[in-house]
Design brief:
This protein is mostly helical and about 130 residues long. The protein is built from four helices and three strands; from the N terminus they run H-H-H-E-E-E-H.
Length: about 130
């Protein structure tokens, strides 16, 4: 009986932790939901960066720091919005994907290009300064 109760407690704790981390896709451990699912989808950062109009080295640095190349990465912000995907596209920019979270690589890239074109720089990304790309 004690083993069954202990197993149930452990299972509940694992479920609780997994919900907040989205299976590792939410490294901040505070996501109330998992907009891009709970399975990681790592891509080649150099390949995705080569498809945009930006400086390649800056793109590789920013994507490495934003998502580590995980197309399903999610970050829950203090204002209640999410950043998702390889380029960590913020909820305010999801119109580029019909209002839906751009979790697949193609839609995330399209949104990143749209955001970059609006500013002609990586300035909207929080990692821009750390990468020396602002």
């Amino acid at each position: 009986m004690k083993v069954v109760v202990l197993f149930a407690i452990v299972a509940c704790l694992v479920a609780l932790v997994s919900a907040n981390t989205c299976g590792g896709n939410c490294p901040s451990n505070d996501c109330p939901s998992c907009p891009c699912g709970t399975a990681a989808a790592h891509i080649n950062i150099a390949d995705i960066c080569s498809k945009g109009p930006w400086n390649q080295a800056c793109c590789r640095c920013i994507v490495s720091h934003e998502s580590g190349g995980n197309a399903h990465a999610a970050n829950y912000n203090t204002n209640g919005s999410f950043d998702v995907g390889v380029f960590q596209i913020n909820r305010v920019n999801w119109a580029c994907n019909g209002g839906n979270a751009p979790c697949d690589v193609a839609s995330n890239l399209k949104c990143a290009i749209d955001v970059w074109n609006q500013h002609r720089s990586f300035s909207p990304w929080s990692t821009c300064r750390g990468c020396g790309c602002c």
